[in-house]
Write a structure and sequence with these properties.
This protein is an alpha+beta fold. The chain has 11 helices and 21 strands. Helix 8 links the parallel strand 17 and strand 18. The chain binds adenosine-5'-triphosphate (ATP) and magnesium ion.
């Protein structure tokens, strides 16, 4: 991408009402545009980061046999009435809308009900199971407070996976597979060493559900971890009773702030029963399908990763999800001509700052935008037949051969 050709620009100021650092930096660096509190547009750089996050998740889920779909965001109230979740008392974040022809529709805050209902068309026998179906979908939630930038949207992108099984054992086996897959996903996203599976409340038939929490000072949640971080609890379950159950002592735990980036639930029959999702077993009996659900906050992740690595100069993306690997600057006539040559054939890896601007201005934008490596070609570097490569993460520069760049 050429900076001279894109409509986006870095901005000196963030939107006035943007109180979150991720929102401010992502706006200033040209990744997002704020419409309203908790409501954002994604610009080319933002779309690129989101797509990279999605592709990592997609690759890992496909590797364990999951199938991707895309469901509607407009919801049939009848399905949600069957589970008692259309009422604003039960679910207090609904956006609802009216059909011109009469009647109310919901804007999906999540998809358990329509997913369960959809699978009724395709599941009838034990031979149809297990199934693992997921999507990346826009969710709508009328959140009371939306002050955390893209970390808490009123419209946001979630990956939601649902699994369907003949037995609880089969659900348990798949649940463990997803745990391993989630660990791989968070590693690839560059936050593996600060993201933990926690015990949380909200288990449906067991005491706990599990959340994935990333340690982050501006996170909205509080977690407690032990010395080797093998036991991590959300605040709501960090009680004497629970600690006793784990043979643990409160004094051995450290309290930190964290952001929830994902969660996993064993739903069992919670949705299959009210929505009547059944299969015929090998012994010809009608049984309810066992279910699990597994979420990841895709747009929240972009905010969490932005917050996690940013410094006083701007964003710092991990290589795997950076919109580009290199930020290219040519200085002087020869430097610019060489930069043009280097850019050709590497358009997907290079953000080429070919604007008519001072090098200092370009360097500042390179830092704000957070591309992992800055490549500078100038008379000075060319005299040695090299380019200057600077790592955004540690600011270290070195001269390297051109051909070393794209190996
Ligand atoms: P929270 O406690 O943060 O409100 P939740 O328990 O409501 O989260 P889920 O309904 O389980 O979250 O959604 C799955 C994932 O979607 C969460 O783990 C989180 O990463 C993400 N998520 C939830 N709400 C939002 C939101 N308003 N904006 C962005 N991401 C969100
Ligand atoms: Mg919530």
């Amino acid at each position: 991408m050429r900076l001279s050709k894109t409509f986006i620009k870095t901005l000196r100021e963030a939107p006035k009402d943007e109180v979150a650092r991720n929102g401010a930096l992502l706006s200033r660096a040209g990744y997002i545009h704020k419409e309203l509190a908790g409501i954002y547009d994604y610009l080319p750089l933002g779309v690129s980061v989101i797509e990279k996050i999605k592709n990592i998740i997609r690759e890992e889920l496909n590797a364990i046999g999951c199938e991707e779909v895309q469901m509607s965001a407009l919801q049939n109230p009848e399905l949600w009435e069957a589970t008692g979740r259309f009422s604003d008392q039960e679910v207090d974040i609904w956006f609802k809308t009216e059909l011109a022809s009469g009647g109310t529709l919901g804007l999906a805050p999540t998809h358990e009900e329509p997913m369960t209902n959809m699978l009724k068309t395709y599941i009838s026998s034990y031979k149809d199971l297990p199934l693992y179906v997921y999507q990346f979908q826009t969710k709508f939630r009328n959140e009371l407070r939306a002050k955390s930038g893209v970390m808490r949207g009123r419209e946001f992108l979630m990956k939601d996976l649902y699994s369907f099984h003949t037995s609880e054992d089969d659900l348990d086996i798949f649940y463990e597979k997803v745990e391993k897959t989630y660990a791989r996903i968070f590693n690839r996203l560059g936050i593996g060493d600060s993201t933990f599976k926690t015990f949380a409340s909200g288990g449906i038939f067991s005491k706990f559900s599990h959340e994935y929490q990333t340690i982050l000072p501006v996170g909205e949640d509080t977690i407690y971890y032990n010395a080797d971080k093998s036991l991590v609890f959300n605040k709501e379950v960090f009680t004497d009773e629970v600690l006793a159950e784990f043979n643990a002592n409160a004094n051995d735990f450290t309290e930190v702030k964290a952001a929830e980036v994902g969660n996993i639930f064993k739903l069992k029959h919670k949705y299959s029963k009210p929505l009547n999702l059944k299969y015929t077993s090998e012994s010809n009996q009608e049984q309810y399908v066992y279910m699990g659900c597994y979420g990841i906050g895709v747009s929240r992740l972009m905010g969490v990763i932005a917050e996690k690595f940013a410094d006083e100069k701007g964003l710092v993306w991990p290589e795997e999800i950076a919109p580009f690997k290199y930020y290219l600057v040519g200085i002087g006539e020869k430097g610019i001509a060489e930069a043009e040559k280097l850019y050709k054939g590497h358009e997907n890896e290079i953000l080429f700052d070919d604007r008519e601007a001072r090098p200092g201005e370009k360097f500042a934008d390179a830092e704000l935008i957070g591309i992992p490596y800055r490549v500078v070609i100038s008379d000075k570097t060319l005299a040695e037949g090299k380019v200057e490569l600077t790592s955004r993460r540690d600011g270290e520069s070195k001269l390297v051969d051109l051909k070393e760049l794209f190996v």
